[in-house]
Amino acid sequence: MTPFDVDDATSAWVLCRFAFIWVVFGYVAVPAYALLVDLPVMDLSPKTQAAALLASEAGKLVATNAMLDAELGPTRTPRRRCFGKDVPFAALWNTHDVALGVACGALASVAARAADGITDGIISAGDETVAAASSSALDLFASIRGDAFALVAAAAASALVAPAAEELFFRGFLLPAVRERFLRKNGRGNDLGNDLAAVAVVAATFAAAHFSPSDFPALFVAGAVFGAASLGSRTRGGLVAPFLAHAIFNALVLAEYLS
Q: What is the pTM of this model?
């Protein structure tokens, strides 16, 4: 993996800017539109809900990419580092990374399902208000089941656009940034320990960013697998494997929910 040479102040600023983008596009944009038209979000038409989800996820992707380009410069931004013009298509979508992404997507789904089972058992024996307080994007799909166009648009947003935006930041920027901090603190002789610590910290951040306490264990497990996919890729730190893993994970969650 290429050393991450971004200073701490810039890294903190990038993190703050992404948090703003994440909240605005992920949690404010659609409710703001619903407020503008004076309707509850779930009372919007299926096509409008799906279009709003797709637009908000696309906005998140574009804004995240533009922010990273502006803050990190042309040589250090994750998109250009992993998908630059000097990276051949065959090298980018190599057999190793594609197979790793598919395998990690399936593993994340199984592991997250197991984490869900444990969490459900704990919640059922304790305070069920925790689950009730959690919000899930899956609630949207309950209202658009009967509209094929809306389902396709919402599925594209959840299984393609959202993974692209999230992997660009969490595994493209945050993982190498955190890993470099551990390397500086602990020395470069313990790569495995630093890798595991960085993957765990980023997975916890990824899970917490979804603001769903009952889903935290499953999202943490999935995020850890996505991190492992990134570090296990042929270029070590590439984004193709974690993107595929994330896309497959989201697609399988939606397929299970809609079946």
A: 0.89
